[in-house]
Design a protein that fits this description.
The chain has 224 residues and is of the alpha/beta class. It contains nine helices and eight strands.
């Protein structure tokens, strides 16, 4: 398997999905799973810090499935496609504190490990190479400057027709980095044996090419 970790907005999802398609692996977006748990908590009127036990119980009952629909990876939760709704700013802001709840992480990590037992996977998130799969054959830590990551999010929101402020997104990005790196449970950090790739100034295709080189060098996929 391939583990890809890195901060929010570093391009993990784009790169992981493309690599999975080329390698013939299943793409698992763990961040989407935490977003889905946050969305369900929001629907239920539950708040991190106040309802942690209830949110943990809610997460335990969620059924996750990644499907490819029209060439695109989609997340279905309890049979419902949540791929679009979990990308809203409101859900994005809630996903970090929800993911820091120990019971939520326990249940979702167990679900992620079950997925990887069935098929070869490309899994991306914050703690895949350090906590979820510390023995992954290949590990990548994908990063980019906060400014570059904010610019990408800003352009994504404009492309979706959503109102957006670059400065607000940058401020949110910096705060998200602080929370993810300092949380007590599974903080964001680079695994000692992970290859670090800085995507500043690189296209998604260039980053994908670098990751494919790593997979071939490790013998995970056949060389051309």
């Amino acid at each position: 398997m391939l583990a890809i970790d890195g901060p929010a907005g570093s391009g993990k999802s784009t790169v992981a999905e493309a690599v999975a398609q080329r390698a013939g692996f299943t793409y698992i977006d763990t961040g989407a799973m935490y977003r889905a748990a946050a969305y369900r908590a929001l629907q239920a009127g539950l708040a991190p810090g106040r309802d942690d036990e209830a949110i943990g119980e809610l997460a335990a009952g969620l059924d996750f499935e990644f499907r490819t629909v029209a060439g695109e990876a989609r997340l279905f939760v309890d049979g419902e496609d949540l791929s679009a709704i979990i990308r809203t700013p409101e859900v994005s802001q809630l996903s970090s504190p929800v993911s820091a709840i120990p019971a939520v992480r326990e249940h979702l990590v167990a679900a992620q490990r079950r997925m990887a037992e069935r098929v070869p996977v490309v899994m991306e998130g914050r703690d895949i190479g350090t906590v979820v799969f510390p023995d992954a054959r290949v590990k990548v830590f994908l990063t980019a400057s906060a400014e570059e990551r904010a610019r990408r999010r800003y352009e994504e929101r404009l492309a979706r027709g959503e109102p957006a402020s670059y400065q607000e997104i940058l401020d949110e990005q910096i705060e998200r980095d602080r929370r993810d790196s300092s949380r007590a449970v599974a903080p964001l950090r680079k695994a000692a044996d992970a290859a670090e790739l800085d995507s500043d100034g690189l296209s998604a295709e260039e980053v994908v090419a670098e990751v494919m080189k790593l997979l071939k060098a490790a013998g995970v996929v056949a060389d051309d």
